[in-house]
């Protein structure tokens, strides 16, 4: 699966469960670790877990397994390493603390138009 297809699949999965403030960041010219980062917020620990698990389920349906995942137990944040795509799902205060968008400033960022912030 191409990295752009992975990005769209994950974004659609996050939108399915009403993730907030979805931002994709193209980091192809910034790092060799991944092509894209997708960052989204959940309103509670339950939603953060549900969002991450839904993304994993959508990839599993396509025969794609994650290289790794972190934070699924706590619900404050979750990281899904899909290889060419890193998916970060966080509660708002955790997202504000880590401020990944600022960390990767200069990289091309796109906000999902269909999900309200």
UniProtKB/TrEMBL annotation:
Major localisation: cytoplasm
Cellular-component GO terms for this entry: cytoplasm
Pfam families found in the cross-reference section: RsfS
GO BP, sorted A to Z: cytosolic ribosome assembly; negative regulation of ribosome biogenesis; negative regulation of translation
Keywords for the protein's UniProt record, in alphabetical order: Cytoplasm, Repressor, Translation regulation
UniProt keyword Transcription regulation present: no
Function: Functions as a ribosomal silencing factor. Interacts with ribosomal protein uL14 (rplN), blocking formation of intersubunit bridge B8. Prevents association of the 30S and 50S ribosomal subunits and the formation of functional ribosomes, thus repressing translation.
Record-given protein name: Ribosomal silencing factor RsfS
Species whose genome carries this gene: Ventosimonas gracilis
Gene encoding the protein: rsfS
């Amino acid at each position: 699966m191409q990295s752009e297809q992975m990005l769209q699949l994950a974004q659609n999965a996050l939108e399915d469960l009403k993730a907030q403030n979805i931002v994709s960041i193209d980091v192809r010219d910034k790092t060799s670790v991944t092509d894209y980062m997708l960052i989204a917020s959940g309103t509670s620990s339950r939603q953060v877990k549900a969002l991450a698990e839904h993304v994993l389920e959508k990839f599993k349906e396509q025969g794609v397994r994650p290289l790794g995942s972190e934070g699924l137990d706590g619900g404050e944040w979750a990281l899904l390493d899909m290889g060419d795509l890193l998916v970060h799902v966080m509660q708002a205060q955790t997202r504000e603390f880590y401020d990944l968008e600022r960390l990767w400033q200069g990289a091309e960022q796109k906000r999902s138009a269909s999900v309200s912030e």
